[in-house]
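Newbie here. two chains, one complex. Structure please?
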Amino acid sequence: MQTVFSIGVDALAYGMVLFVISIGLSVTMGLMRVVNLAHGAFAMIGGYIASYAARDLGLAYAFAVLLAVFGTILIAIPVERLLYRRIYGQPELTQVLMTIGITFCVIGIANYVFGPTLKTIPTPESLRAPVSLGFRTVSAHRLFVIACGAAVALGLWYFIERTAFGVKLRASVDNAAMAAALGVKTEVVYAVSFAVAVGLAAFGGVVGAELLPIEPYYALRYMVTFLVVVSVGGAGSIPGALAACLLLGAIDTTGRYLMPEFGEFFFYLAVIAIVWIFPRGLAGRAK
Amino acid sequence: MALTMNTETLSTARDRRARLTRDAVGVLVILAVAVLGYLLFPNNLALLTRITAIALLVLSLDLVTGYCGVATLGHAALFGAGAYGAGIAAAHFGITDPIAMLAVGVVAGALAGLVSGAVVLRAHGLPQLVLSIAIIHLAHEAANKASGWTGGSDGLAGIMPDAVFGLYPFDLWGRTAYVFGIVLLIAAFVILRQIVRSPFGMLCRGIKQDPLRVRAMGASVHGTLIRMYAISGAVAGAGGALNALSTQVVGLDSLSFTLSAEALVMLVLGGTGSLYGALIGTLSFLWFEDVVSAANPFHWLTIVGALLIAVVLFAPKGLYGSLAALLERRGRTDR
């Protein structure tokens, strides 16, 4: 029972981290049709900034998180202007290459500037203590991560379903040309959603740093996981991405707990099975 | 599409001879580069043999990506299947004749091609890419787990190939392996030239351009692609077997995502949809990697990344494709 419970908490926390990081990827992929392999690199940049701010400059955790999110967005804006603009609407292979190239560059630079070691982000005392739920004690950090994931899901849902910008965003996802013809400034929609996506990636990278440790090869190691989540969930769908993250998080965590010697075998087996049955993802729509 | 079909049916004997001459020139160029490599780097034949083996992998990737339009990041699975096939045949079953090991590698690669083709072709676009990634990771984990057969993360050792035809033993300097590899590469090149030019190869190109129309014409899209995948697997398997023969070790890195991604990078660097592009891409990438990583291993990844971005921005058709387009444009203005 104890095992089942701790697997459950860890799976939920892991799934939420995956969700926070990859939801931005899912939205931009659904919106701009860009296969963005560099998304994990932005999460990693966020982690590095937070680590530098909290550990080397001694800033408060909350401030480090904010700094990471906005710092990453600041770094991402010129990248989007100069590089991503050129690959919108290009064939997938081109996009894959460009974004792999960006990922490699980020890894190389991170390796050079911060060195190949793991970077920790010191969490405040209140997040380190275990929390008693009455019948079990849980790590406060796990609860914090789960709460963050839930908050992001709710916030995004409100943002996309209830605000005027969300209407424009959904219209652009459905049919960018028609939305533009009706007066939606798709350029602005693209830029804002790219910034939000990158900011969320950085946020997820910082919050999830205990589950996905920050090191130079972070971008490459988890890139596949983020892509898998998006494609299993169906690009552009928040409920789909949430379901995929929780499902795959559960499968991966359970596999690691019960059969650690198999590594990620079951994770990828599940991915093949799911994509085989739902070639467009859990919540994918026909083109 | 219609245009190429017309020229195909109207092709005269002179056309055929011209194409055969071009193939002969291609073979001669490969031979010349091989001899030049042998003379310039007599102490580095292992690297040259590895380039040859990877060239086979990139050629095989070109068959599915360049000619059929299937984006895959899991092609090393076929290469690894060939390498482990040949290695296991030698280490566990005592099949140490190099030609027999090569045959086992080819068959293993073709089977892996059939399986991964059946899985990858199930989806399109991003899910297709993800399926291919899942396949390579699954194969990697499976090989790691089945350490009784594959040696796990230590690698499969104990591969002792006999002399080729009983005459040329595999020497310490890797001369035999090098010559063996070059002969293999040329044979594969000649066969593949025939295949991509055959009606079957034309059908594959048609599928890349418009699968719906090909289906309307009455051809089977899925069946054709699966067949191409099997052929591609055979070529990649030959490359894997060559790698196993020359290094006499098979490591898990031959089944890695990194190798798959690098193969794709090499292909696009050279130019997709052309066998020459695949060869040029492999040679320039691996040579570049050798030079840069020897000079400064830390900046290697940054430079590769910058190189990739530059290729996408300035030479989207790859080295060979851009060169060919440039020559064609110049030829047209001259006329």
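Moderator note: Chain A touches chain B through 44 residues (CB under 8 Å). Chain A has a mean pLDDT of 85. Thread marked as resolved.
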